Amino acid sequence: MNVSVAVARKGPPKPADSVSRIGSNLAPHEMRDPFDIGEALTALAGSGDPVTVYSGILDPMLARIESVDPELPHFVFDFTGSALPPGGPATFVATIGGSAKLQFELDSDWSTLPGQPHLVPADFPEACLVLNRRSARRVETPVGGNYSATFNLSNKQYELPLYDFSQGGVGLRATPEQCFGLSVGKKLMGVRLELGPALVVVADLEVRLLRPFRTFLLGEQVQIGCSFASISMQMQQTLERFVTTGLPERRMVKR
């Protein structure tokens, strides 16, 4: 399958973007397949999400992943605006798609590329820890129900099926053609979310994930993961009540 999905890359990371290490009291799973590791690194390179670097007793440093070559396997860090770690082991932590935390360790002299003092090449880690950060219960939408997201973007109207939702966001599904104009980081304003016959929510969303996949019945599809860009206490309580018990009457809740 060859699906091209546009990604809006974020700017250089700021100190506030630092991500903490996975706590020893948590239970992440280990990812060792080079293909899966390459996919995770490629997602970070595409989005420009920050990577926090812990090296010895130094304060955390920030980097991004500039490029990934899964064939070698090899990738390149971009330390623009930040110091380089000293030679030796370092721990790297990042979030992917707003729903998972990725952590891995590398041991290197952190030599830069010739003539490019901010770019540092590295080999794939042998393993990564992955912690699913979805704490909110997610509800899968039933087949045949009225669950959709309707919004306007660049003078184009979108109406996409909703496949799950939670207090933190929603998951949409689309064909590659329907995704034209969407990209990671894109803000979707005034989205009308039909959550079945009982609830309509109007909210602002941010696209956090675009993942191509293929189904037997529908062919090529793209999973679109969106988080609520801002959510009021009223909306959060309404969604919590709906997710856990359902609502008896149809109502409109705005952001």
Could you please describe the fold and organization of this structure?
The chain has 255 residues and is mainly beta. It folds into two domains: 15-132, Roll (Pnp Oxidase, Chain A), CATH 2.30.110; 139-254, Beta Barrel (Thrombin, subunit H). Helix content is 10%, strand content 45%. The protein has two helices and 16 strands. The protein has helices at residues 34-47, 233-244; strands at 29-31, 51-54, 61-69, 74-78, 88-96, 100-108, 119-123, 128-132, 139-140, 147-153, 156-165, 169-174, 187-195, 199-215, 219-228, 251-254. Strands 1-8-6-5-2-3-4-7 form an eight-stranded antiparallel sheet. Strand 14 and strand 15 (219-228) form a beta hairpin. The longest helix has 14 residues, at 34-47. The chain is elongated and about 60 Å long.
Supply the CATH superfamily name of the largest domain.
Answer: Electron Transport, Fmn-binding Protein, Chain A
CATH class of the largest domain: Mainly Beta
Number of helices: 2
Overall average residue pLDDT? 81
Structural category: mainly beta
Strand content: 35-45%
Distance, first to last CA: 38 Å
CATH architecture descriptor name of the largest domain: Roll
User: In the CATH scheme, what's the topology name of the largest domain?
Assistant: Pnp Oxidase, Chain A
Spatial order of strands in the largest sheet = 1-8-6-5-2-3-4-7
Low-confidence parts:
1-7, 246-255
Number of strands: 16
Rg is 20 Å
How many separate domains make up the residues? 2
- Largest beta-sheet details: 8 strands, antiparallel
Residues in helices, as a percent range: 10-25%
Shape category:
elongated
